[in-house]
Amino acid sequence: MCGIIGYLGKENAVFNTIIGMEKLEYRGYDSAGLCYIDNDILHLVKQPGCVADLMNKIDLNANSEICIGHTRWATHGAASKRNAHPHVTKDLRLAIVHNGIIENSESLKKELINKGYEFLSDTDTEVLLYLIYDYFMNNAIGLYDAVKVALKRIVGAYAFILMDKRNNNELICAKNGSPMVIGVQDNKIDYYIASDAYAFPEEIKKIIYVKDGNVIRINNKI
Ligand code: GLU
Q1: CB of 76 closer than 6 A to ligand 1?
Q2: At what angle do helices 143-151 and 124-138 cross, to 10 degrees?
Q3: The CA-based dihedral angle spanning residues 151, 37, 82, 22, taken in that order and rounded to the nearest 10 degrees
Q4: Which percentage of the chain shows pLDDT scores above 90?
Q5: 6: Cβ below 6 Å to ligand 1?
Q6: 99 lines ligand 1 (CB under 6 A)
């Protein structure tokens, strides 16, 4: 098991995410990381070890309204910094946190390497990321549609959250076989996504249980 969490809203995104990560610690993990957008720059902090150590390395006052975080239980590759999540594309455009196992990642990885993509980790998650990225960049479709097309080729279990640096009003998430819930604040401006509703602040009363096969776009500017 492991944990994923995402926050989109008008509060301090980094703080809300790391507090959620602490609450997910009970699920067990070997590495932790988070990624946020501050002034159009994507910031990534990740490492083996515990959430408390990560907290010492992040700027809790960052001016960010969007953040994704992860507590990893390694299945593909050692518990190392480069295998820790979030994973980001080389151009720092897309970032992903993922819980689960992509069973056909080896064959997809070969295909993506043949197309020229370079992999910086041993994870199945980075394969999922570049598969989505490839459809997104080369097919003139939006990220939501790129996720839907890419997932038709994925065999395995996943719950993931995806963030696009050029769209800091939006998180995209999908689930199949791994747990995922969405928490909606009454104001419909603050949203949480996590492996377990326990990660949400107590005031979040509206909880949506995501179903297998769902791909969801959360946008707080629509
Ligand atoms: N399979 C992914 C990895 O090894 C995700 C593991 C997890 O669920 O934490 O990085």
Answers
A1: yes
A2: 130
A3: -90
A4: 95
A5: no
A6: yes
